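Tokens as discussed.
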């Protein structure tokens, strides 16, 4: 798959993830926030919880199991830390989530996928 095709499918996955989050009660605050230290695909809020979401789209469900690793989550966590003051208010909880998407499957959300010190 070409880089352009991968980018197009990644954006499609992010769009599906945004809709899925909205349907499950989350309010999307931002998409594709890029910084030098990393990128956050989606920033969403539900109640007092702000989630910084990494979205992974794969062609088949089996490939989803290896789509996210500690290195990638560390980059998301660094980016989330840098942008948190824009979205997190006093008393809010913040977490790093992952949404895995593959054709023919419901999106799978891994809540709190990254813990500091992991």
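Sequence:
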């Amino acid at each position: 798959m070409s880089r352009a095709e991968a980018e197009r499918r990644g954006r499609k996955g992010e769009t599906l993830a945004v809709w899925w989050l909205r349907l499950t009660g989350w309010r999307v605050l931002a998409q594709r926030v890029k910084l030098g230290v990393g990128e956050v695909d989606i920033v969403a809020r539900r109640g007092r919880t702000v989630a910084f979401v990494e979205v992974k789209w794969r062609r088949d469900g089996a490939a989803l199991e290896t789509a996210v690793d500690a290195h990638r989550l560390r980059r998301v966590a660094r980016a989330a830390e840098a942008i948190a003051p824009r979205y997190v208010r006093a008393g809010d909880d913040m977490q790093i989530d992952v949404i895995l998407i593959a054709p023919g499957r419901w999106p799978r959300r891994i809540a709190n996928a990254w813990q500091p010190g992991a």
